[in-house]
């Protein structure tokens, strides 16, 4: 029985037996291969995604060494613990839709018993849900024909990137854009119409509540009746 210290590189060993009269005899040679040191995987590619969407698949860079044959386990991490994701045993992972920022970890293990270790944590950041703003019409109340109306908007919240705005005016199936700033410049109305403010960014499109701007029609002109041939004086 031969006991050897820890090895850092491969070597060859054989046994020799010696007899004073017959001389030495040698066993066959045995090559001992020493795997490279085990180095855990690295996760790359932090992402910022929209609320309720699925991120791009995560893939590991590495691991290396330890025989190059591994078992994988994926985890999520919170402030208190790491949580195993059951059934995810590949070097990459595809995730479902997320509604909150989530941190992922990968633990590869050498199938030759040469080590196990954690990757770096990688965060998938989830933006807040896109929520529409509101607006106030000026002037308040009902209008007369040919009166001008303006509006002051409150911006949307959430999503990714700056918001864009479109004011839509119309009724039924007939609508048109009448402004693209957060505050609507004065426009002339001749009839009752509905007004709404649409917000958009890279995470989608949302609309404010719709306000009906009432324009009262002019009273009808009265007809004149009477003698068309009045007497003098």
Walk me through what this model shows.
This protein is mainly β and 233 residues long. The chain has no helices and 20 strands. Strands 6-12-11-8-9 form a 5-stranded mixed sheet, with no helix packed on it. Strands 15, 16, 18, 19 and 20 form a 5-stranded antiparallel sheet that branches. The protein has a 3-stranded antiparallel sheet with strand order 5-7-10, with no helix packed on it.
Could you say which structural class the secondary elements and strand pairing correspond to?
mainly beta
The helix fraction, in percent, is under 10%
Distance between the termini: 148 Å
Sequence of secondary-structure elements = EEEEEEEEEEEEEEEEEEEE
Spatial shape: rod-shaped
Give unreliable regions as ranges. none
State the helix count: 0
- The count of β-strands is 20
Largest sheet: 5 strands, mixed
Computed Rg: 39 Å
**Overall pLDDT confidence:** 91
Q: In percent, how much strand structure appears in the residues?
A: 35-45%
Physical arrangement of strands within the biggest beta sheet: 6-12-11-8-9
Protein traits:
mainly beta; 233 residues; rod-shaped; single chain; five-stranded mixed β-sheet; 0% helix
Please provide a brief summary of the model.
The chain has 233 residues and is mainly β. The relative contact order is 0.14.
SSE blueprint and pairings:
Elements: E1 11-13, E2 16-19, E3 23-26, E4 30-32, E5 42-43, E6 47-49, E7 58-61, E8 70-77, E9 82-84, E10 92-93, E11 102-110, E12 122-126, E13 135-138, E14 147-153, E15 164-171, E16 174-179, E17 183-189, E18 193-201, E19 204-207, E20 211-213
Parallel strand pairs: 6-12
Antiparallel strand pairs: 1-4, 2-3, 5-7, 7-10, 8-9, 8-11, 11-12, 13-14, 14-17, 15-16, 15-18, 18-19, 18-20
């Amino acid at each position: 029985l031969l006991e050897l210290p820890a090895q850092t590189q491969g070597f060859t060993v054989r046994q020799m037996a010696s007899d004073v009269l017959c001389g030495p005899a040698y066993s066959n040679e045995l090559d001992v291969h020493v795997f490279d040191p085990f180095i855990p995987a690295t996760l790359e590619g932090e992402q910022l995604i929209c609320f309720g969407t699925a991120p791009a698949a995560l893939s590991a860079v590495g691991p290396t060494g330890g025989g190059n044959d591994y078992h994988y386990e994926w985890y999520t991490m919170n402030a208190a613990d790491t949580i195993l994701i059951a059934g995810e045993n590949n070097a990459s992972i595809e995730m479902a839709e997320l509604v909150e920022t989530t941190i992922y970890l990968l633990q590869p293990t050498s199938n030759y018993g040469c080590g196990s270790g954690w990757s770096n944590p990688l965060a998938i950041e989830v933006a807040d849900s896109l929520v529409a703003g509101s607006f106030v019409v000026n002037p308040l109340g009902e209008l007369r024909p040919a009166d001008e109306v303006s509006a002051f908007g409150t911006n949307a919240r959430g999503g990714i990137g700056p918001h864009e705005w479109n004011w839509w005016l119309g009724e039924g199936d007939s609508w048109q854009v009448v402004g693209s700033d957060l505050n609507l410049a004065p426009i002339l109305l001749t009839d009752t119409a509905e007004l709404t403010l649409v917000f958009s960014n890279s995470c989608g499109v949302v609309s404010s509540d719709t306000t009906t701007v009432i324009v009262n029609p002019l009273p009808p002109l009265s007809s004149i009746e009477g003698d068309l041939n009045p007497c003098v004086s």
